[in-house]
TrEMBL record, chain A:
The chain crosses the membrane at residues 57-76, 83-103, 130-150, 180-200, 206-229, 236-258, 264-280. CDD domains: TM_PBP1_branched-chain-AA_like. Keywords: Cell membrane, Membrane, Transmembrane, Transmembrane helix. It is a multi-pass membrane protein. InterPro entries: ABC_transp_permease. The keyword Hydrolase does not apply. This is ABC transporter permease. It is found in: Cell membrane. PANTHER family: ABC TRANSPORTER PERMEASE PROTEIN YPHD-RELATED-RELATED, BRANCHED-CHAIN AMINO ACID TRANSPORT SYSTEM, PERMEASE PROTEIN.
TrEMBL record, chain B:
InterPro entries: AAA+_ATPase (IPR003593), ABC_transporter-like_ATP-bd (IPR003439), ABC_transporter-like_CS (IPR017871), ABC_transporter_ATP-bind (IPR050166), P-loop_NTPase (IPR027417). Keywords: ATP-binding, Cell membrane, Kinase, Membrane, Nucleotide-binding, Transferase, Transport. It holds the Pfam family ABC_tran. It is a peripheral membrane protein. This is ABC transporter ATP-binding protein. Residues 5-253 form the ABC transporter domain. It is found in: Cell membrane. The keyword Transport applies. The keyword Iron does not apply. One of its GO terms (molecular function) is ATP binding. Signal peptide: none annotated. Gene3D superfamilies: P-loop containing nucleotide triphosphate hydrolases.
Amino acid sequence: MDLLISSLSLGLLWSIMAIGVYLTFRILDIADMTAEGSFPLGAAITARQIVAGVNPWVATLSGFLAGCLAGLISGFMHTKLKIPALLTGILTLTGLYSVNLLIMGQSNISLLGRVKTVISLLPDMSTSSAAILIGVVVLALVIGLLVVFFNTEVGLAARAVGNNEEMSAANGINADNMKIIIYMISNGLIALAGSLMAQINGYADSSMGIGTIVIALAAIIIAEVLVANLSFGMRLVTIVGGAIIYRLIIALVLQWGVDPNNLRLFYALMLALFLSVPLLQKRIGQRRRRQKNIAEMEADQDD
Amino acid sequence: MTNALELRKLHQFFNQGTVNERHVLKGIDLKLAPGEFVAVIGGNGAGKSTLLNSIAGSLPVDQGQIKIEGEDVTYETVAKRARLIGRVFQDPQMGTAPLLTVEENLSLALLRGQKRNCWSFGVKKKQRQFLQEQLALLNLGLEDRLSAEIGLLSGGQRQAITLLMATLQNPALLLLDEHTAALDPQTSQIVMTLTAQLVAEKQLTTLMITHNMADALKFGNRLIMLDQGQIAIDVAGAEKAQLTVPDLLALFKHKSGQDLTDDRVLLS
Ligand SMILES: Nc1ncnc2c1ncn2[C@@H]1O[C@H](COP(=O)(O)OP(=O)(O)OP(=O)(O)O)[C@@H](O)[C@H]1O
Ligand SMILES: [Mg+2]
């Protein structure tokens, strides 16, 4: 039971980050490494402000905005300076490592004790139920706003850019600007997840971003493998499911006695496996059809 | 009256400054009056697509000048120029966003040349009827398929929709680069007829590249032939109306000193 609840609370948080990654990954077809820097950036900004006594929700919003700024930088380098997307992400991520240390002034900040976080604002609840409540509310808001945004004039144009850049330009859409907008929203959400994570775990750490992109992609792929072809809004909802399932698998593995030091190796192996599932499914289906065909052809010959 | 399009000493090079340098457009001068419908013909590699791409902005120009409705657009990006230009590509995949619905694609085109904002929906309910009426004009039964993903439609249907998208906002200039070449002969004729109908109805100034000599003679009120990056033939009005395919071939030979070399030319 504990395992379920903790997986649920962490999975909900991860899904905010996974939704962020989904925007660049599926709309722009870019695996944006900036994620690994914007996640701890959100945590760092929020932790620093909370320690200074800022209202935790304001501190959380600052984390989101800082992530948008990180996205702006990556987006600018990718579109205006034409630096390949993978490299852009690595550049921003590397720079952010120092920035995060600068913000925190040390490699980690503890949020335990008297400081107010979004969790401690809900006094009569255990940390995990507060985390679940906050996760659900924030996710509902995020998904709702994203669905609305991607149906506005600008949002529709942004989707068109990801889908067919040539056609977008011919219809007067500035592809660079649309890409930058997506980069910003994406990294804002990832930083928001980092900000909430710091408050739930009770600390921000400069190395907490490692593995972000792998976890997020795993959640996305699980969602896509389990349910194919969905509308944008439904896809976001399934990503929440994907993240929770993924967290549950990992919790089980940890309980099973895998050394936490080996966890990231496990993340990587799992994602490699998930990424190959669609191909495996196709191969298996093909083999079945062929065997069926061979059997039919042989039966035909016997007649 | 201002020209719908004016090209002055337009040059285009590929691989400039290298041993592979190719001088593809060699000082094109061209003026189109509003409402002129020009068929553009010429052999393989004559520079027809290069000309249209330069006008549309997908090939940057650094020698010469391009004016549309009197506005100098020589250094504007494709997206910026799009307020003045409607465009249909040869590849039916290129003109529409496959994962968006028919209605979403058309709505995108309705906002061509306008500022897009975050406080109104991209697809507007009150425009639905208008879009349906426009689709009905295509006579392809597409008016009931507003919410179908465009990627699921046939090449001909997609091309017809692209044509509609390019003309919805009455562009100052319509550019068609062999827009029927990838379609089967029957669909090709349907799209060609639609083109003529839309161009006539909206009085659109049009440049249409075609490899079909008969179409080039049948449609439009002016014809230009490109040869090695220059305009070799330019006929309009009654003079064009009298031309036959053999006349055209003879004229080409006379001007360029050789037979029209074109692996895809359609003489029928
Ligand atoms: N990107 C490019 N790089 C180098 N050369 C190019 C490029 N694009 C076109 N060319 C060359 O420019 C010349 C003109 O090409 P263009 O595509 O304009 O011809 P076209 O008249 O449209 O021919 P077609 O009828 O075959 O479509 C050709 O010789 C072509 O090889
Ligand atoms: Mg061509």
